[in-house]
């Protein structure tokens, strides 16, 4: 039997168990940097599959190794993230989260269970391919500085050193049975902004006796948006969003002393990213000063932009078409969301693709990061099989 057919057969054979694993992980979500039980569970599964592994990279991460024939010929890495989000689940399902206020709302339970199944498939077929597969089960994708950066610092990409890396992510807009890819620039960098505007509070009826930080804040917000619309090259995607504004001590008839804001800045060009940081600081501080107030402006630099290696991604697309059929492999647009998989893409050729998990007929359409996110679990069989096929195809190059 051809290797592709063996992979499909094993993915189907393991599908029921993979669903059980996904549901167990979904029921027991853990937040970033707190994935203690999740890491143990992954390690236990790899032990049961007789796959050599180490548990403890970046505290809760797990790294497995599968050696085929001639293991030194080439090394390919596969990555899944394992953390959950601080969201209270609203789904009425038998495998609903047991941890109050915590939910796998971004599909990391899918990524983890799928990679465990991929590992099982590849370990079963390790006499059928040459090279080595490195399995990376990574904690803390959802929170800075990102588990990827920590694992890289701790040597996850050494001994053995991969030549390339693959990662997959759930994608509700894509119907189950399909996947999407995009070579080159794919996802944005992401920085966090923390701003405090200070004035002098007082009675709302006597604004002339005050320095109104709310009015100053309104001017700053408008001015900052002009940096994106008037200072950046229109060919460079940029997004500036403030999602949280709070005043300290304000009321209908009270002008507060200060206003605190939190936001995000995203782009796809490192030179512009650095320049925009300087412009935003200068604009906010000078605007506040000109109106009699003051402004502190802190930027926490987050994940870099994610760049899919063009050649690796185009080869992956060809191999995906061979596995799924041309109609089930689609081209993706750029996204202004961010992913710490981008750190791996800075170290070696990387391919990050999207796994279709939606089913509009069954009402499975909720986006990620929502309390009703769920998947069509048929995606697990496809996701595991496809990643196994992409891996052996890459090793065979």
Describe what this molecule looks like in 3D:
Helix 1 (3-27) crosses helix 9, helix 5 runs antiparallel to helix 6 and helix 7 packs across helix 9. The chain starts with a helix and ends with a helix. With 397 residues, it is of the alpha/beta class. The longest helix is centred in the first third of the chain and has 25 residues, at 3-27. The strands form four sheets. An eight-stranded mixed β-sheet has the order 1-2-4-3-5-16-6-15, sandwiched between helices. Strands 10-12-8-13 form a four-stranded antiparallel β-sheet, covered by helices on one side. Strands 7-14 form a two-stranded antiparallel sheet. It has helices at residues 3-27, 36-48, 108-124, 147-153, 213-231, 270-290, 310-324, 342-345, 378-395, and strands at residues 53-57, 61-67, 75-81, 132-138, 164-175, 179-181, 184-187, 191-198, 202-203, 238-248, 254-255, 258-267, 294-300, 306-308, 329-331, 350-358. It is elongated, with a radius of gyration of 24 Å. Helix 3 (108-124) links the parallel strand 3 and strand 4. The protein folds into two domains: 3-188 and 305-395, Zn peptidases (Aminopeptidase, 3-Layer(aba) Sandwich); 191-300, Alpha-Beta Plaits (2-Layer Sandwich), CATH 3.30.70. It is built from nine helices and 16 strands.
């Amino acid at each position: 039997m051809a290797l592709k057919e063996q992979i499909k057969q094993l993915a189907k054979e393991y599908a029921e168990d993979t669903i059980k694993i996904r549901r167990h992980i979904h029921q027991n979500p853990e937040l970033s940097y707190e994935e203690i039980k999740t890491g143990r569970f992954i390690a236990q599964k790899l032990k049961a599959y007789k796959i050599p592994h180490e548990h403890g990279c970046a505290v809760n991460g797990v790294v497995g190794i599968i050696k085929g024939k001639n293991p030194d010929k080439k090394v390919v890495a596969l990555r899944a993230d394992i953390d959950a989000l601080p969201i209270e689940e609203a789904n009425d399902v038998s495998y609903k989260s047991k941890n109050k206020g915590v939910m796998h709302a971004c599909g990391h339970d899918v990524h983890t269970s799928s990679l465990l199944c991929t590992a099982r498939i590849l370990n079963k077929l390790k006499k059928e391919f040459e090279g080595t597969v490195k399995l990376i089960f990574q904690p803390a994708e959802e929170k800075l500085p990102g588990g990827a950066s920590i694992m890289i610092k701790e040597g996850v990409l050494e001994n053995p050193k991969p030549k390339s890396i693959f990662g997959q992510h759930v994608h509700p807009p894509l119907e189950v049975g399909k996947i999407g890819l995009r070579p080159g620039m794919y996802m944005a960098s992401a920085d966090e902004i923390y701003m405090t505007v200070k004035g002098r509070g007082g009675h709302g009826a006597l604004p002339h006796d005050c320095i109104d930080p709310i009015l100053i804040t309104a001017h700053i917000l408008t001015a900052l948006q002009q940096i994106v619309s008037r200072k950046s090259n229109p060919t460079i995607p940029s997004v500036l969003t403030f999602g949280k504004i709070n005043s300290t001590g304000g009321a209908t008839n009270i002008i507060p002393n200060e206003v605190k804001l939190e936001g995000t800045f995203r782009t796809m060009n490192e030179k512009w990213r650095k320049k925009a940081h300087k412009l935003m600081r200068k604009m906010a501080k000078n605007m506040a000063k000109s109106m009699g107030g003051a402004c502190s402006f802190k930027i926490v630099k987050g994940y870099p932009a994610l760049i899919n290696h063009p050649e690796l991604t185009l080869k992956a697309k060809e191999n995906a078409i061979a596995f799924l059929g041309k109609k089930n492999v689609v081209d993706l647009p750029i996204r202004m969301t961010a992913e710490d998989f981008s750190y791996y893409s800075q170290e070696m050729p990387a391919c990050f693709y999207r796994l279709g998990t939606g089913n509009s007929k069954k009402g499975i359409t909720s986006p990620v990061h929502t309390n009703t996110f769920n998947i069509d679990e048929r995606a697990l069989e496809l996701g595991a099989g496809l990643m196994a096929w992409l891996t052996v195809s890459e090793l065979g190059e």
